[in-house]
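Side project, low priority. Logging it here so it doesn't get lost.
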Amino acid sequence: MMDGAAILAPCRSHVHRARTIDAFAAILDPDVNLAIWERPSMLPVESLVGFGTIQMTTPVGRAHAALTEAFAQQPLAAWHADITADIAALAKSFAAIMDLSHVVIRLERVVGDACKRWHADYVSVRLICTYRGSGTQWIERSVEIVDAPAIETRRSLAEGAVGLFKGRILAGEQAIVHRSPPIAGTGEERLLLVIDGPPPAETAALWERAMQRG
């Protein structure tokens, strides 16, 4: 090799993508801080007018029943049953990966700039899925040349895709940086799902603030 020639870095990506739910298991890899199930959007969500935020902590085995009860308090819509089943299934898969008996579920209608600043959440791992509207944006870092600064590229989850975002509790400064897409003034509505594990007692205050972000 000629002196001064660039050396390509044998670098693994910190993002794992797959077209099946098996993508989730990759989040346990110390080198992966975002695992994405690249599934298509297959649950048509109609009008969100009048939809109020659903937020709960529930045993995993009771997630479907608890969600059914919560949706019964919302304006009636044909898509509720499909979303209920999907969230319960995602909660079960997330809990199996993270070894959880309980999960914290938040489903909300977003019409403004919920959290447009780039940040990493103070959680272990957070599941995020946008059922309707623009998906969560995140930063992918790649190194093409040894010792060169990382290249940062802005990416977005597709509608319906599911991401497991590793937070600061597990990844420290390597936690995935992301934000909600700025939509204020556009007329766009998003239906955002977030699933977490219950917070450790010693970090409950930090975790509570992180829970309010998407």
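Brief comment: The first strand starts at residue 15 and ends at 18.
Revisit when time allows.
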